[in-house]
Specification:
Blueprint lengths: L4 E4 L4 E4 L6 E3 L1 E4 L10 H13 L4 E3 L10 H11 L10 E6 L14 H15 L4 E6 L8 H14 L2 E7 L3 H13 L4 E7 L11 H7 L3 E5 L35 H17 L3 H10 L6 E4 L4 H8 L9 H11 L2
Parallel strand pairs: 4-5, 4-11, 5-6, 6-7, 7-8, 8-9, 9-10, 10-11
Antiparallel strand pairs: 1-2, 2-3
């Protein structure tokens, strides 16, 4: 049983986010893909509404999600406007800034000008007065970290965000951020980082330090961009993300060694009565320092499958040992 499990409403389990008063659903919905201008609006709307009906209250966005950049926020704003049942007080909405958003010298990085300009634009696109969590999307070595962090402090004090977080910061810079924000009475609510069976690095430094600082942890890419699903068991499907030449997931990432691990993990998932995706999500959530995992989906059916990960959260010691053996092979 997870010691940081704080609430369960019959649909979704919620975990406390660090040492704050906020709880997040174990599974959150991310709008990185499939909510852009060229995606079918009705499909995205169906997914958001279904997620909320199943107890997902946390929706994760960023200024540059789309494509084109900004269009995912516009889509989400339209969905909220057309769904009165999704009351603002029942939602945790997060967005971010720090990666390239628009051409020119001020459309990238973590300067005060970029962060403030971006947040104003994000609020306008989503038709909101505030976001619940605003992230510095990445550590920017060209901007003094004090400038970035003081901007986060000022954003909270302005009322445009209730909480702030950091994403993908190296461990040393994250430690600095935790202390800087705490000393100014604006604690870092959450660290967001990539964490999956295929990327276990956060467990060595990032997770322990965030936990010690009283900061929650939200995992993104828990399915390794789809590698930890049954989609690539028999190769690369024509309509898959990996088949796209301009995607983040490239064909050379499916090496013979990775393919063998996927197939072995899938066999273990079958023995557990789960799909590979369900088991992969459950594996991340079995780490009690994880507050929530962010999933992406292209359909309600896929979303349903991912949500079943919470139905069998426990792993036996033998199962965990088998997973370690597979991943280290």
């Amino acid at each position: 049983m997870n010691t940081n499990l704080d609430r369960y409403d019959g649909r979704m389990r919620y975990r406390r986010c660090g040492q704050s008063g906020i709880v997040l659903p174990e599974i959150s919905l991310g709008l990185w893909h499939n909510f852009g201008e060229n995606d079918r609006f009705s499909t995205g709307s169906d997914m958001v509404r279904y997620a909320f009906e199943q107890g997902i209250t946390h929706f994760d966005l960023a200024n540059n999600y789309g494509p084109p950049p900004g269009s995912a926020e516009e889509t989400f704003g339209r969905i909220l406007k057309q769904t009165p049942s999704m009351r603002r007080e029942e939602l945790i909405i997060s967005t971010k800034a720090g990666h390239e958003m628009w051409p020119g010298p001020y459309g990238d990085g973590s300067s005060r000008k970029m962060l403030l300009s971006s947040l104003d634009q994000s609020l306008k696109r989503m038709q909101l007065d505030y976001v619940d969590i605003f992230y510095s999307h990445r550590y920017d070595s060209l901007t003094p970290i004090e400038e970035t962090l003081q901007t986060l402090v000022d954003i909270v004090r302005s009322g445009k965000a209730y909480y702030v977080g950091i994403s993908k910061y190296p461990a040393h810079e994250a430690d600095f951020a935790y202390k800087y924000l705490r000393d100014r009475d604006v604690r870092c609510l959450v660290y967001q980082g990539r964490y999956s069976m295929f990327n276990r690095e956060p467990a060595t430094e990032i997770l322990p330090r965030a936990n010690e600082a009283g900061c929650g942890f939200v995992a993104f890419s828990p399915l390794a961009q789809g590698l930890l699903t049954d989609r690539y068991l028999n190769g690369i499907p024509e309509n898959s993300r990996m088949a796209r030449p301009d995607g983040y997931l490239q064909q050379d990432q499916l090496t013979p060694e990775i393919h063998a691990r996927i197939r072995a993990l899938n066999e273990l998932a079958k023995q557990r009565g789960q799909t590979l995706a369900e088991m992969a999500l459950a594996w991340v959530l079995q780490d009690q320092r994880v507050t929530s995992v962010i999933i992406g989906a292209s359909s309600v059916a896929q979303l349903k499958d991912n949500l079943r990960a919470t139905e069998k959260p426990e792993f036996s010691p033998d199962e965990l040992q088998t997973i370690d053996t597979i991943l280290n092979s």
